[in-house]
Amino acid sequence: MGKAKFGIFGDGKELAQIAMAKVFRTGDFRSGYYRDQTFMFAIGELTIQQFFAQLYAHTDLVADPSTAGRLMTGHFGTRTLDEHGHFRRLTDIKNSSADISPTAGQMPRLLGLAYASKLYRNNPGLHHYTDFSVNGNEIAFGTIGNASTSEGMFFEAINAAGVLQVPMLTSIWDDGYGISVPQEYHTTKGSISKMLAGLQRTETENGFEIMTVNGWDYPALMEAYQRAEQICREQHIPVLLHVEELTQPQGHSTSGSHERYKSKERLAWEADHDCIKKMREWLVQEVMILPEELDDIEKEAKQAARLAKEKAWKAFTEDVKRDQLQVTTILEQAEGQSRHGEEVALLRNELTTTINATRLDTMRAAKKALRLFREESHAARTALIAWLTAAEDDNHGRYSSHLYSQSDESAIKQEIIPAQYSEHSSIVDGREVLQACFDAALSRDPRVLAFGEDVGKIGDVNQGFAGLQAKHGELRVTDTGIRECTIIGQGIGAALRGLRPIAEIQYLDYFIYALPTLSDDLACLQYRTKGGQKAPLIIRTRGHRLEGVWHAGSQIGMLLHSLRGIYIITPRNMTQAAGFYNTMLKSDDPAVIIECLNGYRLKERIPDNIGEFTIPLGVPEVLREGTDVTIVTYGSMCRVVMEAAEALEQAGISCEVIDAQTLLPFDVSHRIADSVKKTSRVIFADEDVPGGASSFMMQQVLEVQNAYRYLDAKPVTITAREHRPAYASDGDYFTKPNPEIVFETVYEMMHEADADKFPSLYR
Q1: CB under 8 Å to 177, separation ≥6 — which residues?
Q2: DSSP assignment, residue 197?
């Protein structure tokens, strides 16, 4: 009837999902994909009415607790947080991490969910956190389609699970196709289990337990899942269960038909091997249930589904019609109050006669009416404006809330604890400031852990964790392989299960390898569950000034544009970084903290309260007060700009230098606009490409903060060149902004204002 926009279903996978559900216990986690509705029904975490509510995009949380109508059908997730945004007792419920559409995108997170069980089992300091784990006995169940096993994320996660030896039970639903593309285009040897046979564990080598089973054979499925669960749960051995000979009787989705690409022979085979048909045969032949009894069960099931569909549609339409009724009532009143009565009547009639009207129909009718009323003053206009204001508020809650945490643990609600210094405060290398901060965090909270390339034994390439593995143990500070995507997934899964991971990506340049997982999964987690799940992961990295195309990146614009939902923190030195780590470890938001790559050996005075002091997010710091020009920057550019400001002072130009400190959030109190009001000139300086982060800062200050009103000169950006940085000191100098460029830019701005006082430098 066209009531649903789009449908994608798990038909043909029912028996395998029921068998999996039989061994899924409270405390376990699922990380699956959009064909698992039978599994969710079977574990009692999805009703048929909720399934249809999601199909209709019902924005009510009771109707669709998985996504509140924010995702298309087939995206499942349980609510692991209570109404205050705090973790529920996860060991008492059956948990499903929130699904995403990108195929294989669930695999990095799956690794982390399983990794958490290893930590909870093997770290005695975590054994009393029984809300999150019972001695690490929980399995992470993953599901993926056969075609998606071609994705790099799948291979990376499988390899990492084999290395880590974690309880990860991965089911591959193999129906022989990936949309219309048959198996021979996807997989070497035409079988993922044959292809991965080298992962099979032996008596002398760790690895996977690999099993194959036909998806239409219920007794074999039960036997396979029971064996897989026992191995996974008791021994913490990862298991790969290849479920073959599945069908997909409705094709990929409602947007296409499988008859277009399957042969008559294949279609006939699928009709004969449909798992529901095979289950019926088994029940009749082996369980001795009469066919008439099964007919009655099927009739009852169809009737129950039909009734659930009707209830879901009724609930959805009644929710929408409340607004529609309010607006039509106001429009009816307006017909007698407005000189545009006839046009209003047409609007009202159009709204009331629209078949399956949605909220946008009501909103459009209200706004069209207000255009007619723009030169009028009457009660209906006042009422309609009041409705519109309330509706926009409500719709923000329905469609735009919970990008970040709204709990009392939110990063922007953390107590500010100033850094304390005394005559005994040591002056040390910047790396030692971080080392002391991390040591304090690890000592304070057994849930804190850190991992990444070279983080463990040598304490990271810049020594921020030097000696901390020896002190706190390999489970707390550990190395990983070169696998940025699953380093992030390892962190997401661990954070979903109550741990406080710090996942390191060695250089900012390598974020590109992890960007899909960060953007598709972590950044939108709170949003796509409307506050139902959280993963307070801290991603540590380093960037800005150094040397070379792949070791001196400042691709901040890339992060700003793709990671809304994750705070972006850009400290200018290691003391500021330490304060931000302390803040984020107290919060329940995720964050990227980008340390200055050339700052680890610069001297800093270490605070006496290195493990306690915090720095607020979204609060710029004025590094130098001035009256002529405001310069806004962050990170390593702070030192460059400050050097230029000193030289400009000698030339009679007073610069106010402001360190933004965090880019998401950005200057929540509009401190920069206050500075521009004083100086009437503004420059935004950073190391990103033209149009990158400097343009973002300009938009925030001029448009959001309305600082354009105070300008007496064109706003200017200072950026790097359009290419990546060339090698060596000269390459850095001629690629990225330097003190001379900053000096010349500011001076030229003042020359335009007063050429006599500031004559041209080079003409």
Answers
A1: 147, 183, 248, 258, 261, 262
A2: G
pLDDT in tens, 714-749: 999 999 999 988 888 888 899 999 999 999 999 999
Q: 3-state DSSP: the chain helix, strand, coil percent, rounded to 5?
A: 45, 10, 40
Q: Contact, 390 vs 397, CB < 8 A?
A: no
Strand partners, 142: 31, 170
State the chain's mean pLDDT as an integer.
96
Closest CA relative to residue 469, chosen from 451, 456, 488, 460: 456
pLDDT score of 1: 53
Distance in angstroms (rounded) separating the CA atoms of residues 724 and 716 = 21
Instruction: Please list, in sequence order, all residues whose beta carbon lies within 8 angstroms of the beta carbon of residue 511, skipping any fewer than 6 positions away.
Output: 484, 505, 518, 541, 555, 558, 559
| DSSP string covering 602-663 | SEEEPPTTTTT----TT--EEEE--SSEEEEE-TTHHHHHHHHHHHHHHTT--EEEEE--EE
> What angle do the packed helices 264-273 and 275-285 form, to 10 degrees?
40
Q: Are 33 and 106 in contact (CB under 8 A)?
A: yes
Query: What's residue 9's pLDDT?
Result: 87
Instruction: Determine the average pLDDT of the residues in 386-407.
Output: 97
**Phi/psi at 433 (5° precision):** -65, -45
Partners of residue 630 on adjacent β-strands = 656, 682
Query: Tens of pLDDT along 55-105?
Result: 999 999 999 999 999 999 999 999 999 999 999 999 999 999 999 999 999
DSSP reduced 3-state for 173: strand
Distance CA 40, CA 48 (A): 10
Tokens of 361: 């129909």
Element (H, E) at 42: helix 37-42
* Cα dihedral 700→703→705→709 (10° resolution): 140
Q: State pTM to two decimals.
A: 0.96
87 contacts 132 by C-beta, under 8 angstroms: yes
What's the angle, vertex CA 59, arms to CA 53 and CA 61, rounded to 5? 85
- Counted residue by residue, the chain has a size of 763
pLDDT, tens only, 593-627: 999 999 999 999 999 999 999 999 999 999 999 99
For residue range 11-43, what is the model confidence (pLDDT) as tens digits? Answer: 999 999 999 999 999 999 999 999 999 999 999
Using only C-alpha atoms, the chain has a radius of gyration, in whole angstroms, of 30
Tell me the three-class secondary structure of 561-577, residue by residue: HHCCCCEEECCCCHHHH
Q: If we measure between CA atoms, which residue out of 742, 391, 428 comes closest to residue 601?
A: 428
Which of 635, 572, 580 lies closest to 604 in space, CA to CA? 572
Q: What is the pLDDT of residues 707-716, one digit of tens each?
A: 999 999 999 9
Digit-coded pLDDT (tens) for 447-487: 999 999 999 999 999 999 999 999 999 999 999 999 999 99
Give whole-number Cα distances, 721 to 689, 725, 727, 747, in Å: 6, 8, 14, 20
**DSSP per-residue string spanning 291-335:** HHHHHHHHHHHHHHHHHHHHHHHHHHHHHHHHHHHHHHHHHHHHH
Locus of tokens 């279903």? 9
Do residues 474 and 456 lie in contact, with contact meaning Cβ atoms separated by under 8 Å? yes
Q: Which two tokens stand for residue 339?
A: 């000189």
| Enclosing H/E stretch for 39 | helix 37-42
User: What is d(CA 679, CA 700) in angstroms, rounded to the nearest whole number?
Assistant: 18
CA distance 20 to 24: 6
- Comparing 249-258, 405-414, 487-496, 559-568, the range with the smallest average pLDDT is 249-258
138-147, 254-263, 385-394, 397-406: range with lowest mean pLDDT: 254-263
* Torsion angle of C-alpha atoms 583, 587, 590, 593, degrees rounded to 10: 0
